[in-house]
């Protein structure tokens, strides 16, 4: 018995006998410690990308439409040369402005105050369920809505010498107008629900709505994630954070209008706004930290995500660009600026009364300030994007003509892609990877018999099906 006690008190062990295991655990701890910094760098960059696309609707879009109209008016004087009256970019700008104006005019038939009091009369549990349903509906609307807008732009600018199989520009335009209108109603209900939560006496509804963000952790961290799935989730979080900031702005504008723009009440809203923003940031950090831990994903992957978003911006500034950057952001992140812009314009016009020459002068100065902010933001983003693209060694990809299923992104050391068979004799898989099954037969038919399917980050948008889920 004494011998046994002596062994228990003096027994030793050597951790270096299992050095690899403990080194891996230490690296996971370091990765979790790096996640907040790397994630927020991506979030801040993506936030300003969304803001750039959003400010475009209010600043450069009216100017570009004005230039397109002047081109049409001066066409008889200057003479018609070429096969097009307007360039495809001008046609898309006119369509965007027309959709914006028509959707805004249709929102005059909606009573924001009646909607607010109708929502306020519901029970807390019912409002919590409605708010969660609205988040799901917003994702569905964003997915199908961008397809509607892309179909409209292509139908309106498709070369005339091709055989067309579309239903025409006018039906597509009508669908786009009704989509933006209904999506605006959806966001208006979200803003009204958030406004009710802010104005509740005991803030119980606001607490419940914030707790729903933590429920998102349970539905995400205990599921298998790949690199592309995490990229989709990151884009979704960027879009959600920017949209929530706009919703908070709308709520503050509505409340300040009700209290005659008293500064004292504005300072009373600041703690609630800060609490919502902090809870959202905390949820994102915890969620991404555990996802990268459980799936053995390095924190360096967020630098690749940032370089992929920067590549979209730089490529859209080229002379032979195939899309506008605001549309690229909509496809990549699922953020469509038009419905949010319609609602914000409606709230601003109802909240701020413009009367007299001085008021119009202030509006003009405010517009010039927005244009200046947009230009400065674009210049800084473009400079940062060039740095990120050069750091990722992607400069050569800018001069390649885009082709479907082409490896546009440099292959990382560890592959987390959705489906990445490596049948090519020149490609050798990493030693740490297990062999993966070949692609399905229907996928091989779309790719051709000799071209394997390999999705990179530049091929993944917000609603690409990666594996068996869309995150």
From TrEMBL:
Its main location: membrane. InterPro entries: Tatp1. Coiled coil: none annotated. Residues 410-430 have a biased composition (Low complexity). It is found in: Membrane. One of its GO terms (biological process) is cartilage development. One of its GO terms (cellular component) is ciliary basal body. It is a multi-pass membrane protein. Keywords: Chondrogenesis, Membrane, Osteogenesis, Transmembrane, Transmembrane helix. The chain crosses the membrane at residues 169-189, 265-286, 335-352, 358-383. Pfam families: DUF747. Residues 402-459 are annotated as: Disordered. PANTHER family: TRANSMEMBRANE ANTERIOR POSTERIOR TRANSFORMATION PROTEIN 1 HOMOLOG. Belongs to the TAPT1 family. This is Transmembrane anterior posterior transformation 1.
């Amino acid at each position: 018995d004494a011998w046994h006690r002596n062994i228990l008190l003096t027994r030793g062990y050597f951790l270096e006998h299992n050095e690899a295991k403990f080194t891996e655990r230490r690296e996971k701890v370091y990765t979790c410690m790096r996640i907040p910094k790397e994630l927020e760098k991506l979030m801040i960059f993506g936030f300003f990308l969304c803001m750039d696309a959003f400010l475009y609707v209010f600043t450069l879009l009216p100017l570009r439409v004005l230039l397109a109209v002047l081109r049409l008016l001066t066409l008889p004087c200057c003479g018609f040369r070429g096969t097009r009256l307007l360039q495809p970019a001008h046609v898309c700008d006119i369509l965007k402005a027309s959709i914006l104006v028509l959707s805004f005019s249709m929102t005059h038939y909606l009573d924001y105050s009646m909607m607010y009091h109708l929502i306020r009369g519901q029970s807390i549990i019912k409002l919590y369920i409605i708010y969660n349903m609205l988040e799901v509906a917003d994702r569905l609307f964003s997915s199908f809505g961008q397809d509607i807008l892309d179909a409209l732009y292509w139908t309106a600018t498709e070369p005339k010498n091709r055989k067309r199989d579309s239903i025409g520009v006018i039906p597509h335009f009508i669908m786009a107008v009704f989509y933006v209108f209904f999506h605006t109603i959806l966001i208006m209900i979200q803003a009204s629900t958030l406004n009710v939560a802010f104005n509740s006496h005991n803030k119980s509804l606001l607490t419940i709505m914030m707790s729903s963000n933590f429920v998102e952790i349970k539905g995400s961290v205990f599921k298998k994630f790949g690199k592309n799935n995490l990229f989709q989730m990151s884009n979704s979080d960027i879009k959600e954070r920017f949209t929530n900031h706009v919703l908070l702005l709308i709520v503050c504008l509505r409340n300040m209008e009700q209290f005659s723009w008293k500064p004292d009440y504005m300072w009373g809203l600041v703690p609630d706004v800060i609490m919502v923003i902090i809870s959202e940031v905390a949820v994102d950090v915890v969620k991404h930290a555990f996802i990268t831990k459980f799936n053995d994903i390095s924190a360096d992957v967020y630098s690749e995500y940032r370089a992929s978003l920067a590549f979209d911006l730089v490529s859209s500034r080229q002379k032979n660009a195939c899309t506008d950057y605001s549309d690229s952001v909509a496809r990549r992140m699922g953020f469509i600026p038009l419905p949010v812009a319609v609602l914000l314009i409606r709230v601003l016009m109802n909240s701020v009364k413009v009367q007299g020459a001085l008021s119009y002068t202030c509006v003009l100065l405010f517009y010039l300030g927005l244009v200046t902010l947009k230009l400065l933001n674009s210049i800084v983003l473009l400079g940062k994007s060039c740095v990120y693209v050069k750091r990722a060694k992607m400069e050569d990809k800018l001069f390649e003509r885009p082709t479907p299923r082409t490896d546009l992104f440099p292959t990382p050391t560890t592959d987390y892609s959705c489906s990445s068979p490596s049948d090519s004799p020149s490609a050798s898989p990493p030693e740490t990877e297990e062999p993966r099954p070949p692609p399905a037969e229907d996928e091989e038919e779309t790719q051709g018999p000799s071209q394997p399917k390999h999705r990179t980050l530049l091929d993944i948008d917000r609603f690409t099906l990666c594996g068996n889920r869309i995150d």
